[in-house]
Amino acid sequence: MLSLYPSLIAADQLNLKDAISNLEKWCQGFHCDVMDNHFVPNLTWGAPTVNALDQATEKPLWVHLMVTNPLGMLKQLELKPDSLLSFHFESTRDPEEVINRIKEKKWRSSLVLSPKTTLEASFSLLHLLDQLLIMSVEPGAGGQAFISDSLKKIEHLAAKRAELNLPFTIGVDGGINQQNIASVCSAGGQELVVGTAVFGQRDRIAALEKLYKTCE
After folding, report:
1. What is the maximal distance between C-alpha atoms in the chain?
2. Which residues pair with 115 in a beta bridge?
3. How many domains does the chain have?
């Protein structure tokens, strides 16, 4: 089943609560990029803002940590059970420890692979994950074009999951729009981040509905 998460980094930053209220009935949840200006060359929200956003919606947040100290950030977050927490394989020497801390908080664990990181790097951890997130752009900035080679990576991951008979979902983040979403779904993408494809449109609800219909 397809799940779409509008990315709040692409919304009007002065009216995030309104953006949530407008789309809450039409999506599975909302995506939050947390960047520290160190792991990636951009700076977004800290834990207090993310915690406030969590209180502004009944839907789960998908928090994507693009930070050099994911464990430190996890300690500061106060989110609903079943929130989705993504951290980068490249950000820690002990990804299994981060996964365990996420699970202790009753959140869904998600490991992120940047475009240059091979799928094979994640294979020993797949049995621990609720989601494996494929970045289809370089992490750290919105509005980038979808990297077409990501489709092969998604297909390879879907085949590996079937081979191992594991239940994790496949997430995809970056550059997803009306032109490529059908290909992403066909390759095996299930939980997708959509930014400017929704918030860059005049009628955001209609844009979101059209994305869903394209993958039906």
Report:
1. 46
2. none
3. 1
**Low-confidence residues in the chain, pLDDT < 50:** none
Q: Give the rounded distance of the alpha carbon of 140 from its chain centre.
A: 13
Catalogue the active-site residues: 33, 173
- Give residue 108's region: left, alpha or beta (phi > 0; psi -120 to 50): beta
**What pLDDT sits at residue 61?**
98
What CATH number corresponds to the domain at position 192? Answer: 3.20.20.70
Give which of 57, 55, 37, 56 is closest to 46, Cα–Cα: 37
- Tokens (6 digits) for 18: 């309104």
Distances from the Cα of 155 to the Cαs of 93, 114, 185, in angstroms? 27, 16, 10
Q: Are 127 and 121 in contact (CB under 8 A)?
A: no
Q: What domain range is 177 assigned to?
A: 3-214
Query: How do residues 148-160 score in pLDDT, each as one tens digit?
Result: 999 999 999 999 9
Sheet (strand 131-135) strand order: 3-6, 191-194, 169-173, 131-135, 108-113, 84-88, 61-66, 30-35
Q: How far apart are CA 182 and CA 170, in angstroms?
A: 15
Backbone angles phi, psi at 4, to 5 degrees: -115, 135
Degrees, nearest 5: CA angle 85-129-50: 5
The model's pTM is 0.96
Phi, psi torsion values for 10, nearest 5 degrees: -90, -5
